[in-house]
Amino acid sequence: MKKILIFVCSVLLLFSLTACTIDMYRMNSNEENTDETKTSEELSISKLQEKYPQFFNVSTDGGFTVYIWQMAENNYKCYLINRVIDALTDRTFAFEVGTTIPEMRTILSTYDINKDDIVIQPVANPVSSYAYRIDDAYTEQLTELFWSDEEVNVP
After folding, report:
1. Domain spans of the chain, in order of start
2. Residue 115, C-beta contacts closer than 8 angstroms, at least 6 positions apart
């Protein structure tokens, strides 16, 4: 009888943990989805500077590379780096933190840089289990997606 009681308690605990995990995933998914739909007015520069200080005061000499990786369907993260520094790094730092596309577009709007000097570079994040193939068509599609929102204008 004692073994049955322990078994039942274990099963109930497992179900409780599973339910909590699912709820937490849903809450995180909703937060990420709402980030993608924020307007540029809601993406305050000062809040972005607090959240992503590494993306401000980056030298524009040589242009920028914006790395973009996909974490799930319609969930993209971005990382900004100067192209000169980019040639000297191993890029592992890029996956530590990423902005949403609207956030990155807002950050880029603070720079005096021509759109032609910004390279959109899709990459695969090694910690993401979301599978996608990076080829010329995907790169073109992602570049169009990145620049498609006209709410934030970069010269």
Report:
1. 1-37, 45-148
2. 147, 154, 155
